[in-house]
Amino acid sequence: MFNPLGPPLDVLTRTKSQSRPAHRSSKSTPQPLEAASPAARAAIALEYASLRNRSHCPLGLYVVPAADTILIWDAVLFIHQGYYADSILKFKLTFPSNYPERPPTVQFINDVFHPLISSNGTFSLMPQFRAWRPNQHHVFDVLHFIKAAFKRDVLDKIEEADCLNKEAYKLYVLELNSSCGCNNDSR
């Protein structure tokens, strides 16, 4: 059974010599990521453990660390309303070796036509996190923003400069303007 919170914390904090051999697929991510400091690994493990708090992991979003490293999390988002209703979106969060000083990167696995998602799946955190603040911003903030980015109120506030997919942005603005009867292009 798929557990949204993944394996117990002790599985995530084992050293490489203690861990069980993992099945390696041909799509395996290169592992220079393992150069992360023990402090970074501990911060990531604590962030993952904090997702057990009811308000930290958004409803409909499930996250589990990769089998071979805590620096990569696999996630699935189920969207039930809005433009993306009935979508099941898979993505990865990849933590830098100096986390929490730098934010994780978000890479969608599915092809998603969205203003904040590039053609290669990279998701822009810029509208929410102009400057990443290690003591104020957390993974649960990132997860809540990812979910919110598929809702109309966030889509309406996106600035073109923050978009990685300008075509999706322009089509969304066109749709927005035609649905409200607006003909101005003030965005």
From TrEMBL:
Kindly indicate whether the keyword Magnesium belongs to this entry: no
* Pfam families on file: UQ_con (PF00179)
Q: Which UniProt keywords apply?
A: Ubl conjugation pathway
Q: Which parts form a coiled-coil structure per UniProt? A: none
Residues forming the UBC core domain are 39-187
UniProt cross-references to SMART domains, sorted A to Z: UBCc (SM00212)
Region annotated Disordered, chain positions? 1-36
InterPro entries from the xrefs? Ub_conjugating_enzyme, UBC, UBQ-conjugating_enzyme/RWD
> Among its keywords, does the record have Glycosyltransferase?
no
Classification via PROSITE patterns: UBC_2
Highest taxon of source = Eukaryota
Under what name is this protein listed?
Answer: UBC-like protein
Q: Species name for this entry?
A: Lentinula edodes (Shiitake mushroom)
